[in-house]
Every structure is written in structure tokens, then in C-alpha cells.
Known about the structure:
Blueprint: H1 12-22, H2 32-42, E1 43-47, E2 52-57, E3 60-65, H3 74-86, H4 89-99
Antiparallel strand pairs: 1-2, 2-3
Amino acid sequence: MNDSSDAPHLNNHHRDTLAAxxxxxxxxxxxxxxxxxxxxxxxxxxxxxxxxxxxxxxxxDHVFTRPRNKDIDVQTVVDLRHILSAAxxxxxxxxxTNEGKEV
Length: 103
């Protein structure tokens, strides 16, 4: 994926969540429900009977536990950056972030 047009299945809400995940410094208020929505858009998500979330993005399996609060923690943001970068969404996030900036 080279630019945001390579991710037509992502709506503006997904793009905002993706940009927040890749934002530096790390955002401390990324909503868990927004993350689940994004992960459903880029892969598949299933909640297990143990209350964990199993998801597949870019052919890779991952498991996350629902956060205690509505927002994800910094380690989860870092993990999501690695997962989404490996699936090709790092460049999309960079372009989404740059779309709002004047050049």
C-alpha cells in the first residue's frame, strides 16, 4: 500500500484511528471500540469465551485483552503499530496524517 487511496475500505473514522495509533508522541486516548472497528475493517476479529479478542491482520494471528478503561494503553498502541506496519498500513497512516498538513 502506497497511499490512502490503497485503503478504500477505510472510512474517515478508521483513518482517524489509524492516524492516532501512529501519532508521535503516543496518544493516550485511543478508544478501544474504535480500534475494534479498525481491526474489523483491515482483518477479522472474534471475541473468545475468555473475553479476549482474537484477530487476523495481514495473515498474522494476534490476541488482545479488552482494556479496563475505554482507552487502550501505550503498550497496546506500540503493538498495534507493529502489526499494522507489517500489514502495510504504516504508509497509509503516514499519508492520512500528511493529508491535513499544508506542504
